[in-house]
Amino acid sequence: MHSSTERFGAAKDKARGAVPRHVAIVMDGNGRWASKRFMPRFVGHKQGVDALVRTVRACADRGIDYLTVFAFSSENWKRPQEEVSGLMGLVLVAVSKYLGKLANEGVRIRIVGDRGAVSDKVREAWDEAERRTVLNRRITLSVAFNYGGRWDMVQACRAAIEAGVPAAELTEERLAEFLALSHAPDPDLFIRTGGEVRISNFLLWQAAYSELHFTDCLWPDFDEVELDAALATFAARDRRFGAIKTEVAPVVTAAAAVQPAA
Ligand code: FPP
């Protein structure tokens, strides 16, 4: 449990914008973590669940309101059948092991992705996780499962059409209402572990202005030290969202530009 002084410090950082409101993570490197230890890849995924739970708690302690993680991509179906079914089974194990604890700690769980293709058992586990945590607000954990950024845009367009939104009224804001992550603000900080430097079809729309942080740390090793390093790089970034910095680039009017210098 954190002291009230630590919590007050976190609140001040948050007010200054030094702490991201929403962190998104591509949890990469489970397989390599296991291979380095001569263990089956599944062991890496299992350790990955523990790293995820650690990270949810660490983010909540630091005043982060939303954490979104990439747990299973639309492309992960191409992995060997044994690994795919291992990951599906891990959902059931993870929910039965951690749901009660996370629910009691104030975590709201949302699942984003195409639930159509997963088994009834997995779908029911996700439904239960959402149902049991619906009133929680300490932190929202969105688990992207059978998710892809391109899938999300297509399903949002389809949903908008089905809702009868006229083409002329389909603005960015209106379309965003149909995206899978419409319950969260856009991520401020996008982290990828495992050493690869790419986005891999995660949050393509929402990450437009996210600060990116890549680390060689393999996901099962991700801990508070790694999280704090990512948060420190975020705090040092100068976010402009496409605008210019007025203090270094004063506005020069056309009239002032043609005036001879005094
Ligand atoms: C990428 O590592 C990781 C995944 C495809 C799965 C991520 C899943 C977890 C961390 C477990 C969380 C699961 C649930 C049920 C919430 P990789 O396998 O691509 O690793 P590699 O790049 O080293 O091969």
Give an overview in words:
The chain has helices spanning 4-15, 30-36, 41-61, 81-104, 120-132, 149-162, 172-176, 224-236, 254-258; strands at residues 22-26, 66-73, 107-112, 139-147, 189-192, 211-214. Strands 3-4-2-1-5-6 form a six-stranded parallel sheet, sandwiched between helices. The protein is α/β, with parallel strands linked by helices and 262 residues long. The chain is globular and about 55 Å long. α5 links the parallel β3 (107-112) and β4. It starts with a helix and ends with a helix. Helix content is 44%, strand content 14%. The chain contains nine helices and six strands, in the order αβααβαβαβααββαα. The relative contact order is 0.16. The protein has a single domain (4-257), classed as Decaprenyl diphosphate synthase-like (Undecaprenyl pyrophosphate synthetase). Bound molecules: farnesyl diphosphate. The site of farnesyl diphosphate (FPP) has 18 residues, from α2, α3 and α4.
